[in-house]
Amino acid sequence: MENQKSLATKDLSISYGEKVIVDNLNIQIPKGKITTIIGPNGCGKSTTLKSISRILKPKTGSIYISGKEIYELSTKEIAKQMAILPQTPQAPGRITVRELVSYGRFPHKKGFGSLKNEDKNIINWALKATNMDEYKNVSIGELSGGQRQRVWIAMALAQQTELILLDEPTTYLDLSHQLEILTLLQELNIKEKRTIVMVLHDLNLASRFSDYIISMRNGKVITSGSPKEVMTKKTLKNVFNIDAQISIDHRNNKPICVMYDLIS
Fold first, then answer.
1. Per-residue pLDDT at 1
2. Is the pLDDT of residue 95 over 80?
3. Cα distance between residue 46 and residue 264, in whole Å
């Protein structure tokens, strides 16, 4: 695998029982960029993310992180390189923000040892980077949806991984909180050089915040490339079966889907 690629799959097939969800998937994730996977419900987006993060074992094929097959690495080694934020993360409501963020340091601890000063400094940094420092002693159950997402991202940051995977991080959030979370991820990408891979449903948000987009349908990649290469009338027809009107947002020179109709 090329050095500029932090993550790649080769001939990856994933199934639930006898039903094949992802078939012969070959993707490469650019290092230091924001990559978003788009596609209709049931196309294999989240399944692919689960397999990449080793939550779900593929039927056949390989997954490489920094040039190494992930099943040749220990769970602890994976956790030092990759952080995953699932679609609906759960935590006890009484746990405090700081306690949850501290879990991100577990891959770096030896045995059941206590947190060292270095760990505490990283936790403090993660809280400040996500603007959650003032809430560090507040319980998770008292936070808004957007604030909870920030805490989970802070925990991922505390892992100190180069790669962060997020499965629909804006789900159940209102418009302002969606922008808040995606702007935070964009800042982390730019300032901290983190490689971000996420699944999004909103095409315009995917276009606005991504450097690279992978479109999927029926477990296969339809197109991949820059937003301008993927957000086209032809691709959206092939992926979503819609007749889309595409324009350019002159604020960022990114394509936007202005209007669309179903193709009968």
1. 37
2. yes
3. 27
Residue 210: the pLDDT is: 98
Region 17-43: mean pLDDT is: 95
| Burial (Cβ within 10 Å: 0-12, 13-18, ≥19) of residue 209 | buried
Report DSSP letters for 60-129, one per residue.
EEEEEETTEEGGGS-HHHHHHHEEEE-SS----TTSBHHHHHHGGGGGGS-TTPPPPHHHHHHHHHHHHH
- Which band of pLDDT confidence, cut at 50, 70 and 90, is reported for residue 2? very low
| HSE value, Cβ hemisphere, 13 Å, CA-based, for 230 | 26
Tokens of 214: 């992978």
**C-beta neighbour count of 225 within 10 angstroms:** 14
pTM for the whole thing? 0.90
Beta bridge partners of 195: 163
**How many other C-beta atoms can be found within 10 angstroms of the C-beta atom of residue 251?**
7
- Name the band, by pLDDT with cuts 50, 70 and 90, for residue 264: confident
pLDDT averaged over the chain? Answer: 91
